[in-house]
Specification:
With about 375 residues, this protein is of the alpha/beta class. Helices cover about 30% and strands about 20% of the residues. It contains nine helices and 14 strands. The strands form four sheets. It has an eight-stranded mixed beta sheet with strand order 7-4-1-8-11-12-13-14, sandwiched between helices. A two-stranded antiparallel sheet has the order 2-3. Strands 5-6 form a two-stranded antiparallel ribbon. The radius of gyration is 25 Å and the shape is globular. The protein starts with 12 loop residues before the first helix and ends with a helix. Bound molecules: ligand PAZ. It comes from Leucogyrophana mollusca.
Length: about 375
């Protein structure tokens, strides 16, 4: 008799959090988020959680090697700036050392800010200067070099700097970091649960590139994996699909936007629909690797489809009810990939956020008593 096929071992979100340890900074991070949210609620601001950058999967407990997920953090950092500009408070949860709002304009690899600075040192003291040729106990004023910004860069830098300073003055940006997929999952759950007090005033914009596979702590080698035994075989487990509990349990009535990255364009729409059917959230933004900076598609349940009606009337919809979208709308957003040099610079995130602001407002309005 044939053996029944064995299911690959998979973690549910519940078993994941019961067996994988939280990052050591979690409590401090949650405390910071709670204080930030309390301030924003007093001011009546909408809050968006932006996740950004790729997660790592360590292969050893004393980690020397890890798998990484592709993402520079451009989408997240750029989007965060447009949300801030629109008056949202932003929790920016990003991979350590990936791009951040504002400083991204002067990234060390593409546009190093040191290249825009000029230095004029004052002349060294002449021989008739009193010091060090007299016994005057007072040393001279330290030589202060004058540092200036290259004239052609001043307008652009001033505009970034003004926005950066205003955000700091208003306290509307709160930054959190993750490195591993484990850090990411614990933080995502904790921050979503904290934000759920905002109900419809919360948006979740999940642009981070999160690993689909991981090595549970219990299976990790303590020390550096040794070479010399030929090829390396590692069996990884599937990362639990946390969007499901995020929609159904962690967030209350929040507006959830997830991203889907593909390299085969023809998969974008079917995969986006599949995600909406599985998880029951509001929007999937599909982007393909090579065109992601100038073309994306927003896929969502069509207004009036049975699922859309259900969501509007009943906050924590899950597919346990067996209700899935009957129809979808797909909205493409595109910008010119090679604009003439005279055209003002344009970033696709400006149009994405513009569209999401309208949709989020409609979501808030549709929940008003
Ligand atoms: O960070 P970046 O600008 O280089 O890339 C952004 C992106 C492609 C990672 C993002 O738009 C995205 O699709 N995130 C989700 C990836 C996923 O399917 O897991």
């Amino acid at each position: 008799m044939d053996e029944p096929p064995t299911e690959p071992p998979t973690f549910s979100a519940e078993s994941y959090f019961a067996t994988q340890p939280p990052p050591s900074t979690l409590d401090t991070d949650v405390h910071g988020v709670r204080e930030f949210l309390a301030r924003q609620r007093k001011q009546g601001r909408k809050v968006v959680l932006v996740t950004s950058g790729g997660t790592t999967v360590p292969l050893e407990l004393n980690v020397v090697r890890f798998l990484d997920n592709f993402s520079a953090g451009t989408r997240g950092a750029t989007s965060a700036e447009y949300f801030l500009k629109a008056g949202y408070a932003v929790i920016f949860m990003h991979r350590q050392f990936s791009l951040q709002p504002f400083s991204r304009h002067y990234s060390h690899s593409t546009n190093p800010f040191l290249d825009f600075l000029e230095i004029d040192s004052p002349p060294p003291p002449t021989s008739d200067a009193p010091y060090p040729y007299t016994h005057d106990p007072a040393p001279p004023a330290p030589l202060q070099p004058q540092i200036t910004v290259t004239p052609t860069e001043r307008i652009a830098l001033a505009s970034v700097l003004r926005a950066y300073k205003a955000v700091h003055e208003h306290g509307t940006l709160h930054t959190l970091t993750f490195v591993t997929v484990n850090d990411y999952l614990w933080l995502l759950r904790a921050v979503s649960q904290e934000m759920s007090v905002l109900k419809r005033n919360a948006m979740y914009y999940l642009a981070a590139a999160v690993s689909d596979f991981f090595l549970p702590r219990q299976k990790m080698s303590e020390h550096k994996i040794q070479s010399g035994k030929g090829s390396l075989h590692i069996e990884m487990d599937q990362v639990p699909k946390v969007l499901k509990p995020m929609v159904a349990e962690w967030t209350r009535d929040g507006y959830i936007v997830s991203f889907k990255l593909e390299t085969d364009q023809t998969l974008l729409i079917p995969k986006a629909r599949q995600a909406l059917e599985r998880y029951g959230h509001q929007v999937v933004i599909g982007n393909d690797l090579h065109h992601r900076k100038h073309r994306v598609v927003l896929v969502s349940p069509a207004p009036g489809s049975s699922f859309a009606k259900h969501r509007a009337g009943k906050p924590n919809n899950t597919h346990a009810d067996g209700i899935i979208p009957t129809d979808y709308i797909e909205s493409w957003i595109e910008i010119d990939p090679s604009p003439p040099p005279s055209a003002p610079p344009k970033e696709i995130e400006e149009d994405i956020i513009d569209e999401l602001l309208k949709r989020h407002q409609a979501w808030v309005d549709s929940g008003a008593e």
